[in-house]
Amino acid sequence: MAGRKQFDVDRALDQVMTLFWQRGYAETSLEHIVSATGLGKGSLYGTFGGKAELFRRSLDRYADTYGRQYEAALSGRPTPALAIQAFFDVVLARIADPRLPGGCLIALSAMAAPTLDDGNRDRVSALLEHQRQRVQAALDAFTPDAAELALFVVSTNQALAVMDRAGASAEQLASVASVAVRAVEASTSAAG
Amino acid sequence: MAGRKQFDVDRALDQVMTLFWQRGYAETSLEHIVSATGLGKGSLYGTFGGKAELFRRSLDRYADTYGRQYEAALSGRPTPALAIQAFFDVVLARIADPRLPGGCLIALSAMAAPTLDDGNRDRVSALLEHQRQRVQAALDAFTPDAAELALFVVSTNQALAVMDRAGASAEQLASVASVAVRAVEASTSAAG
DNA sequence: TCCATGTTGGTCCAGTCAGTCCAACATAGT
DNA sequence: ACTATGTTGGACTGACTGGACCAACATGGA
Predict the structure, then answer these.
(1) How far is A124 from chain B, CA to nearest CA, in Å?
(2) Is A148–B102 a contact, with Cβ atoms under 8 angstroms apart?
(3) Is residue A1 scored above 90 in pLDDT?
(4) Alpha helix positions (H), A30-145
(5) Whether residue A190 has pLDDT greater than 70
(6) What digits encode the pLDDT tens for the residues A156-166?
(7) d(CA B55, CA B53)
(8) Is the CB of B11 under 7 A from strand D?
């Protein structure tokens, strides 16, 4: 194989992911991507394919990056409430990081689902379902209502993304998360 | 005034609102709007102004239409839990209506905030804050924690919009709402 | 009746879009 | 050193975008 890649593929993907995360699929042009990565169109098309494929790779990279963090937060907690609080802390910390766009790429993409191609729409649903299963697995040991609670927790996560985008403060977002944690606590200590 | 309007402005606005609600701001072209309303560009520009103004009018019409429904649902309920359940029932019924797009125009627009013009971005925040105040007013009589709970309820409302767009079933959405209602119930009967 | 005023729908325009193509280049194996 | 192979970034294309414009039209008042 002669002629090696002149750029770091993962680094470029991070830049593209951030761009989609900030502006959404429709409002991110190839010109934005070219400008953010410093690459030419030939390199982008040769390495990643078209815009839709570039988006799919961004979704996967996002899910992988933050999926690990969620996984770590959920595991090894003594109570369901502490696990869910740690889960929300991941989101709250990410939202508070000024180097990253607001909200959540998955939530953003779910909203755009009707105008995404079938492949990307399905991918978004699958990633969200995977997230639900992750939370449910962490709750299963504590309560028989894990399925319902897991869906509620994942939904609240999406809510935080919307509220952040709408301009809510860090305190407000933490408050929403804490109400949700108390709901999980009440559910698991009373009925479970 | 000679030369009267040949079309029903509110009817046209409903069609435009539905289009934005389905596809979002960026993915809705003037061509879509012309085609959906059957009007010419001259009529649209003469009556509403440009695309951004058309979007603003759609936001306001949306907020007005469903704001009345939320208001009615919240008022005159004997307990906070019943008020919030009725509130969520408005969203759930709207989502279940096959004639309307999924999710919520406000939530959709909040997600697109970074790429909206200042006027529309501020409008979205204002409408969401108005919604929060509406819920808080309904809860104020019952509990001292109304501010925090109202924010939680409005957030859950946004969560339902995201989950619907992601393909969640009516049962799943109802389940999320019921967990939230129980959280309100526990908060207001225990601490209040 | 006739004209001033507002409406209508189509045409046109400059800019932007995603995607294709290719000539110049850099490398690895021989 | 030479060449086959893969990479690169810019030039180009046809389609589409939001918006400006306007000639034909419809109406209400004088």
Answers:
(1) 7
(2) no
(3) no
(4) 30-37, 41-48, 51-74, 80-96, 105-111, 118-140
(5) no
(6) 999 999 999 99
(7) 5
(8) no
